[in-house]
């Protein structure tokens, strides 16, 4: 199902564990800052709405999405977090650089999920243009940050 057919901010709280005892890390890419800040706000709003405490949420910034895997790894190694949300916005430019950044970031985050005991949520928009990014970070398709927050709560509560 394409995002166009699903609002990214929609969730049913009755199906989500209470996050009051969970600790979250959020690593935020500084590239396309207007978009990543919107994703961060969406994630925070959903985490708090589902019971998370602000004092249990740690935020770090990294330069770009390519650095998200390292930032998430370092956070897992040094901070007592139950889940990490990796936030980025990659927008197609004139060259193939977009392809390399997207695939490396996705693979790096997947590797962390396989190799560590802490779930890392892929909250990285990979858009053809700025309007698509706007639409998915609080615009007409909702906010992928909210979607990522719900995924983080569910994954941290597994088992
Ligand atoms: N063009 C975008 C980038 N590029 C930067 C890389 O992520 C990386 O920081 C750099 O190559 C140094 O290692 N990053 C994004 O997050 N979004 C983009 O659109
Ligand atoms: C995703 C990118 O790295 C891209 O925005 C950079 O732009 P360009 O491909 O025009 O160098």
Automatic annotation (TrEMBL):
InterPro entries per record: LS, LS/RS, LS/RS_sf
Keyword check for Cytoplasm: no
MF terms (GO), sorted A to Z: 6,7-dimethyl-8-ribityllumazine synthase activity
UniProt keyword Transmembrane present: no
Top-level taxon: Bacteria
Record-listed E.C. numbers: 2.5.1.78
Positions of 5-amino-6-(D-ribitylamino)uracil binding: 31, 65-67, 89-91, 122
Entry keyword set: Riboflavin biosynthesis, Transferase
SUPFAM superfamilies: Lumazine synthase
Pathway listed: Cofactor biosynthesis; riboflavin biosynthesis; riboflavin from 2-hydroxy-3-oxobutyl phosphate and 5-amino-6-(D-ribitylamino)uracil: step 1/2
One GO cellular component term noted in the UniProt record for this chain: riboflavin synthase complex
Binding positions ((2S)-2-hydroxy-3-oxobutyl phosphate): 94-95, 136
Catalytic activity, as annotated: (2S)-2-hydroxy-3-oxobutyl phosphate + 5-amino-6-(D-ribitylamino)uracil = 6,7-dimethyl-8-(1-D-ribityl)lumazine + phosphate + 2 H2O + H(+)
Active-site residues (renumbered): 97
BP GO terms, sorted: riboflavin biosynthetic process
HAMAP family: Lumazine_synth
UniProt function note: Catalyzes the formation of 6,7-dimethyl-8-ribityllumazine by condensation of 5-amino-6-(D-ribitylamino)uracil with 3,4-dihydroxy-2-butanone 4-phosphate. This is the penultimate step in the biosynthesis of riboflavin.
Family according to the record: Belongs to the DMRL synthase family.
Protein name: 6,7-dimethyl-8-ribityllumazine synthase
Species this protein is from: Arenibacter palladensis
């Amino acid at each position: 199902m394409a995002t166009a057919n699903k609002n990214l901010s929609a969730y049913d709280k009755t199906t989500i564990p209470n996050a009051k005892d969970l600790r979250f890390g959020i690593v935020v890419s500084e590239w396309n800052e207007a978009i990543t800040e919107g994703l961060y706000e969406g994630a925070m709003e959903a985490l708090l709405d589902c019971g998370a405490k602000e004092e249990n949420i740690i935020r770090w910034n990294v330069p770009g999405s390519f650095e998200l895997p390292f930032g998430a790894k370092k956070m897992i190694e040094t901070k007592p977090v139950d889940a990490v949300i990796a936030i980025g916005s990659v927008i197609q430019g004139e060259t193939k650089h977009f392809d390399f950044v997207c695939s490396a970031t996705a693979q790096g985050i997947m590797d962390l999920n396989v190799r560590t005991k802490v779930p890392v949520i892929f909250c990285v928009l990979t858009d053809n243009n700025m309007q698509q990014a706007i639409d998915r970070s609080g615009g007409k398709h909702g906010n992928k940050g909210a979607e990522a927050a719900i995924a983080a709560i569910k994954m941290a509560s597994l088992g």
